[in-house]
Amino acid sequence: MPKLVFIRHGQSEWNLENLFTGWVDVNLSEQGEQEAKEAGRKLKEAGIEFDQAYTSVLTRAIKTLHFALEESGQLWIPEEKTWRLNERHYGALQGKNKKAAAEKYGDEQVHIWRRSYDVLPPLLSADDEGSAANDRRYANLDPRIVPGGENLKVTLERVIPFWEDKIAPDLLAGKNVIIAAHGNSLRALTKYIEQISDADIMGVEMATGQPVVYDLDDKLNIVNKEKL
Ligand SMILES: O=C(O)[C@H](O)COP(=O)(O)O
């Protein structure tokens, strides 16, 4: 029975400062590093052995994966990084303080931007200096698909092709897979594999640094879900 583990990166420097982050490549905070190591200890305690790891192209997720794997003695396993597991792009909100935005635009508007399934944040244009179009790590992406802002729906639509092409085939081959990613790329995957409605996904949150372990059957149905 394959195991699938999701882990949201540990607390980042911008989580700590309460800033919208999205595709901005911030580091883990000291607490975030500790959370990632603790996740590794829990995975070791649970005796989970991985065959394959996937992560985003953002430092906070990559380092979380590495701390967790190192702590569980599995830093050697194959890993792949993909932009498709990146955090949802927060558009022009990136770098803004969440509390200050709520004071300016109202709690309700900010909640809609953060948790609605299909409302887009204010977009960042491709010529904005913060645009991902200027970032070397996305140079191999068709400029037409470099986002200027994403909602959960758009995030899900770019995460699922990666699930279909890479993650699901690994699981079907009986491999245990760990995915270290982000609050919203993991909410998108959670919505997809648990078949959560557009309305109910608004209430689903991912804690930083907490492994979520799924046992799947050979048709990838969920047999058990446990948070460590
Ligand atoms: O990108 C961000 O700001 C956070 O990592 C996730 O944000 P959220 O809690 O607003 O979804």
TrEMBL record:
UniProt-annotated binding residues for substrate: 8-15, 21-22, 60, 87-90, 98, 114-115, 183-184
EC number, as in UniProt: 5.4.2.11
Recorded family membership: Belongs to the phosphoglycerate mutase family. BPG-dependent PGAM subfamily.
Protein name per its UniProtKB record: 2,3-bisphosphoglycerate-dependent phosphoglycerate mutase
Record GO biological process: gluconeogenesis; glycolytic process
Catalytic center residues: 9, 87
Function: Catalyzes the interconversion of 2-phosphoglycerate and 3-phosphoglycerate.
Pathway this chain belongs to: Carbohydrate degradation; glycolysis; pyruvate from D-glyceraldehyde 3-phosphate: step 3/5
Site for Transition state stabilizer, residues: 182
InterPro entries: His_Pase_superF_clade-1 (IPR013078), His_PPase_superfam (IPR029033), Phosphogly_mut1 (IPR005952)
GO MF terms, alphabetically ordered: phosphoglycerate mutase activity
Catalytic reaction(s) noted: (2R)-2-phosphoglycerate = (2R)-3-phosphoglycerate
Lineage of the organism: Bacteria, Bacillati, Bacillota, Bacilli, Lactobacillales
UniProt cross-references to CDD domains, sorted A to Z: HP_PGM_like (cd07067)
UniProt KW keywords: Gluconeogenesis, Glycolysis, Isomerase
Listed SUPFAM superfamilies: Phosphoglycerate mutase-like
